[in-house]
Predict the 3D structure of the following.
Amino acid sequence: MRLEGKVALISGAATGVDGELMGFGGATAKLFVREGAKVVLTDINEESGQKTASEIREQGGEAMFLRLDVTREQDWINAVQATVSSYGKLDILVNNAGTGAQFTVEDTSEEVWDSQMDIHAKGTFLGTKHAIPEMRKAGGGSIINVSSIYGIVGSPSSTAYHAAKGAVRLFTKSAAIQYAKENIRVNSVHPGYARTPLTARGYADPERYQWVLDRTPIGRVGVADDIAYGILYLASDEASFVTGAELVIDGGMTAQ
Ligand SMILES: NC(=O)c1ccc[n+]([C@@H]2O[C@H](COP(=O)([O-])OP(=O)(O)OC[C@H]3O[C@@H](n4cnc5c(N)ncnc54)[C@H](O)[C@@H]3O)[C@@H](O)[C@H]2O)c1
């Protein structure tokens, strides 16, 4: 019960249905509940989000689903309000929602650039902005921003994704410093290549999958729980001296 008594809000948490391929947000929601937290799952995918939340309730956990588009400030205001009115407070925010865009610099349209920056950078900013006042009332909190190894190193494409995940990485340190004295910790997680609903289609291409495996010293791609356990550590009081840090979970990819 590493999160006993805590209340968490997770963005991009729809993909946590048992028996289906899980994403980081869905796996984190299920793990948080097993560790004693009450969880608000949010996403733009309402069908899977409702399914994941109702499975958690059937298994005896406390969870609810809310539609939240991370790029819309009013959605964040509503979600934070609904969390506090249902569960009394907010202790943990996981800014996890995201999507990819594999284009070179010249092939990246203005629209793709803006949408990557909106979902990852602006979404993380807005969530943090509206969670902090409630965390202050609760006497502290933990914010975990899901960046990527692509927020640390480059690759042959994914231009706007790299820029947006890099923004998440440094935004995290800026917020960590601003709120450390209020016991609000802000850290980033940097997953390597992992099989989730986001990547499964790409990995079905044997050439692409081999490219990924060749770059991962540990010899396999990650699964959602590999990342969820790292998020759990940062969310818990075990990490009470950890803020502004980068937790890389990548099978050794960026050690090379
Ligand atoms: N899978 C990987 O290899 C990998 C590696 C590094 C980082 N990441 C990052 O991890 C995070 C989770 O991705 P995942 O791989 O678990 O994929 P996923 O597709 O399972 O999860 C992403 C979720 O975000 C939701 N989403 C997309 N746009 C949204 C918006 N505007 N508002 C709210 N929700 C929105 C999607 O509906 C989806 O449920 C993403 O930020 C992704 O960039 C993934």
Observations:
- The two ends are 36 Å apart (CA to CA).
- The CA atoms of residues 114 and 155 lie 20 Å apart.
